[in-house]
Amino acid sequence: MPSSKSVLLQPVDGEWFRQSNLRLLGVILFILLCVATCGVIAYLRWQAEGTVSFVVIGLGVFSLVVLALLTMLLFLSLRVVLGPDRLQELNGSTKVVVEFPYRNIERIWVTKDAFKNKIVAVKLKDPTDASTYAPGGQDALEKCAREQGYHYAIAGFFKQSPEHIAGQIEARLVRDA
Questions:
Q1: d(CA 123, CA 106)
Q2: Which residues form the domain of 36?
């Protein structure tokens, strides 16, 4: 699975699940509120005592980093496409970053990641399948399976729930069997 394969892969026609920019924008506004709160606390403490706690500074910096990452995610526009014979994840509207043929998907289920966010877990029958593509290739898929119990996770701020997306994939697996 060469990393340049994503250049060769073309998006398929099918049902699209788009990222919900409104949900992501809500999270960004919450993080902005956290940054502003840290700023106000730091300012008030500086006025009262002439010093600022490293904890407040650390929380402010951490919030800014998370804010930057979420803002980048807003512009990535992740999409999941359920094609006639394969599952794809796209970055933008044309760059395929993940592709799994339904015949190579053993199981789909909804679980939670380390941050307690719901994700759609994908377990593959054969991660070395020539028509299977994921970032990092076979090694990344197998490492994820060893550590997490699944080969890949569909995660993000999608308009549809993880349960709905998993159900739609499951329906295609049954139809493809």
A1: 6
A2: 21-75
Name the nearest CA neighbour of 35 among 24, 23, 43: 43
Amino acid at 14: G
- Compute the distance between CA of residue 121 and CA of residue 84 in angstroms, rounded to an integer: 20
Rounded Cα distance between 91 and 75, Å, is 10
99 lies in the same domain as 135: yes
Q: Tell me what pLDDT residue 5 has.
A: 53
Give the whole-angstrom CA distance, residue 2 versus residue 71: 29
Q: How far apart are CA 33 and CA 26, in angstroms?
A: 11
- For residue 85, the 8-state DSSP code is S
CA 18 to chain centre: 12
- Whether 9 maps to a domain, the answer reads no
What total number of domains does the chain contain?
A: 2
| Model confidence, pTM | 0.71
Give tens-digit pLDDT for 130-169: 999 998 999 999 999 999 999 999 987 788 999 999 999 9
- For residues 64 and 102, state if they share a domain: no
Q: What is the pLDDT of residues 30-58, one digit of tens each?
A: 878 888 887 888 878 778 887 777 777 77
Q: What is the pLDDT of residues 54-106, one digit of tens each?
A: 777 777 788 888 877 777 766 666 789 999 999 999 987 678 999 999 999 99
Number of neighbouring beta carbons within 10 Å of residue 5? 16
